[in-house]
Amino acid sequence: MTKPSRIQRQSMVFFAILYVLAIGILWTRSQWLRPLNPARALGLVAGLIIVLVIAPFLTPVFNAVLAVTRKLGSLIFALISLLVYFLILTPLAVAMRLGGKRFLSLDHRETDTWYKAWTPGESPDKQY
């Protein structure tokens, strides 16, 4: 018997977790598993063994689930980034500009740099 590949092992763990979650939901939401007698417990363990045996053959399904969740994660990240930008950063920047704050002084366009040397009375802790 050959050792399963990394993706097949991940598939086995994924389907085992799904099986355990399904049993947990059935346990809490229905009376089908209660009371848990030895015959039902043996059936649940046998079901887990069957899932672990079948899981390497379901690796394409696992790959499809991974692809969908990656795309969904990218979409959620993009939406959260847009919300942060448009609901937090943009109003903050507008309020700062209306208040007269200039983060980068562009008054002297003929100079090569915008660096301002520190004067002795200033403190780097209180820049704003």
Mean pLDDT reading: 87
Largest sheet: none
Strand content: under 5%
Radius of gyration: 30 Å
Task: Give the overall shape, derived from the CA principal axes.
Answer: elongated
Structural class: mainly alpha
Individual helix count: 3
Count of DSSP strands: 0
Which spans have pLDDT < 50 for at least 5 consecutive residues? none
Structure, explained:
- The structure is a single chain.
- The protein has 3 helices and no strands.
- Helix 1 runs antiparallel to helix 2 (38-54).
- It is elongated, with a radius of gyration of 30 Å.
- The mean pLDDT is 87.
- It has helices at 6-29, 38-54, 59-98.
- By secondary structure, it is mostly helical.
Please give the structural blueprint:
Layout lengths: L5 H24 L8 H17 L4 H40 L30
What's the short story on this structure?
The chain has 128 residues and is mainly alpha-helical. 63% of the residues lie in helices and 0% in strands.
